[in-house]
Every structure is written in structure tokens, then in C-alpha cells.
Amino acid sequence: MKYMHEYRQADTIKQLADKIADVTSQPWTIMEVCGGQTNAIVKFGLQQFLPSHIELVHGPGCPVCVTPVDIIDNAIDIAARPNVIFCSFGDMLRVPGSAKDLQSVKAEGGDIRIVYSPMDALKLAQKHPDKEVVFLAIGFETTAPANAMAAYQARAKGINNFSLLTSQFLVPPAIEAMCQSPQSRIQGFLAAGHVCTIMGYESYPQLAEKYGVPIVVTGFEPLDILQGIFLCVQQLEQGRSEVENQYSRVVSQQGNVPAQQMITEVFECQSQSWRGIGHIPHSGLRLRETFRPFDAGQKFGLPDRISSANSTDDTTGCISGEIMQGLKKPCDCIHFAKQCRPESPIGAPMVSSEGACAAYYRYATFNESVAFNKRATAQTSEKTAKRRDQ
What we know:
The chain is α/β, with parallel strands linked by helices. It has a domain at 58-319: HypD, alpha/beta domain 2 (Rossmann fold, 3-Layer(aba) Sandwich), CATH 3.40.50. It contains 16 helices and eleven strands. The strands form two sheets. The chain has a six-stranded mixed β-sheet, sandwiched between helices. A five-stranded parallel β-sheet has the order 2-1-7-8-9. Strand 8, helix 12 and strand 9 form a beta-alpha-beta unit. Helix 3 packs across helix 16 (356-389) and helix 8 (144-157) packs across helix 13. The longest helix has 34 residues, at 356-389. It is globular. The protein starts with a helix and ends with a helix.
């Protein structure tokens, strides 16, 4: 807690907020890519520390939120079969498929087990050689090394009753897709620090230059996030579009090279559908041909998920795709905190603790009202000052 407290000191945060206000002369819209950052922003009410004309919008940075419906349906199909032990992180059990979720399959008698790493699932496969053990391998680049290692170890040890149902996403192509969108109003990005811990940030300068957007690699504590915003606003005010590393205590430019090598050995790039957003070229990972025997989709003869060009929640009225592209906020959804709640989610962002909807439901009632009142007061003061000047 000592080291966490350093990045939550109120006096330091207020000083940094004042510095942001000092350098801000016009409206800016900044996206935090990571759901962990979204959770911290809403939990600590960071929007209220910012000038009224800086808006933070929320990105697609939660793998639970963007795992498409067809992969959930494939998971449900496998988990319901006899002689299968289906392993998953706990928050995936309530993500809605097209008809039901994994929690329903568990209630109906499916052998679904919550694990904390793919290696836990691999140990279960060793312990139960008469069962097929499947791990739902979701995540961004952060989880890819561990998932790759599980497949690598399974092949090395000849554990042939183990397989992965993969839902691995890559962040830079998603940032590029949002930059290319004609609806986008994003002027700068806070990049996910933990993703860059693995992959570094050598792929970001070309995005910053190509699309004219500052990208700041940012951590997850309140002070980290405000420093990231300060660096981003400073660039915007100066007309620069570069990559800066706020999270230098953890992230290096080249990243974790051995982890990258493990990813490259086991996985290859593929196009991928993102739930609520759609098809993004070169934004996913799948097992290479040499590791294909450990691909659960192939082992169980399931449909090819790559063919799913658009995976949205339109039939339910869920606007999660627009939220994760920074076009809307959770409170704009007609279902938010009504039909859609953590115990009965309509969309995936209400399931995960890092989903924007879950964060707003948990924290935003107070913090957002404070931020709204502060912005309204500031706008009234500005109008009064203008009338006085006239």
C-alpha cells in the first residue's frame, strides 16, 4: 500500500490538475484505451479534476467486453458436452451468448471450473487424462504469453487432452480502426501500460504520425492517469503528435522480448471480430499450424469464428459498441441501471469489473454528478464573464 499511496496523494493530484488547467486553452477529447484506466477514472472521479472542456471517453480495452458472441456460443457448445472440463476466468461465465451464458450451462450440470491461469487448466488435464480439458484463452497482449506457454507446455509434455479456445486481441490495430472511423472525435490516446509492458511501444509512433494523434503510454493510478492527460494535452496544445511514456517505471520501448518470442512461436496474426465493434483486420491471434492440435475449435469441429464479420448487440438495444468507440457513455443507454445491471447484464461491459458500464454502475452515481455540476458551474461562470465583458 505504501507504493500505491504515492500515486494517490490528494495534494499532488490537485497540483497536477492545476497544471492541466493552465496548459488547456480549447476543448479536447482524449480516449483511455484500457478498461483498468476507465475503472480508475470513474472510481476516483478524475473527470471532476479536469477543465470542463476536456472530455475523457472510454475505449475497447476490456477483453471480456469485446469477445464476440460466436466465441461465447462455441464455449457454451463445448462446455455442455460430456467428458469435458471447461476452464475459464470467473468474469466470462456471465457474458451473454446468443441464447444463454456459461453460468447457465454450469447450472445445468456442465463441468465448468473457474481458474486463475491457463497453467491451472493444464494441471487439471494432467490430473484427468480421461477428460478433455478446455481453457477459454481470452485477453490482449498481456495474457498472450501465459496462454502461449500453456500450449507450448502441453505439446512438450504430450498432454493431448488439453486445448485452448482462443479469443486474443491486439490493441494497436483497434486504435488504428478508431482513427479511421469517420465518426471518431478522438484527438489523443492514453495507451494501456500493461499491454506495453509486454509489447513495448515501437508500433505506436507510426500511428501517431499517420493520424496526427498524441499517444501517451499511461499507468493505472490516479496520478499516472492525470500525468498521461497532462502530457497528451500539452502535445495537443503545441500541435505535436508523438509517443510519450508516462509509465517509464514499468514500460520500456522494446517491451518484454522473451514474452514476445513466446507469443510469436505459438501464435500467428489473424483478422478478428470485436463484440459490438465489428471486424478489425490483423487484430487477433490464433494458434499456428504446429500448435493446431491444441485448438479447441478444430478439435471439436466448431464453426470458423474468423468468418464472423460483425459481432454486435444490436438486437438487444445494447450500445456497448458505441461506448467502446468513445461515441457514447454508459448513461446514454436506455437499459443502463434498469434492465441492465451486474446481476442481469444485457451487454458484456456490465459484466467485467473493467467494463465501462460496470464502472459507472458501481461508482458514477456520485462522481459523475459532481463532475457534471462542476462543468455546469464552470460553463455558467464563462457565460457570465462573457456577458460582463460585453
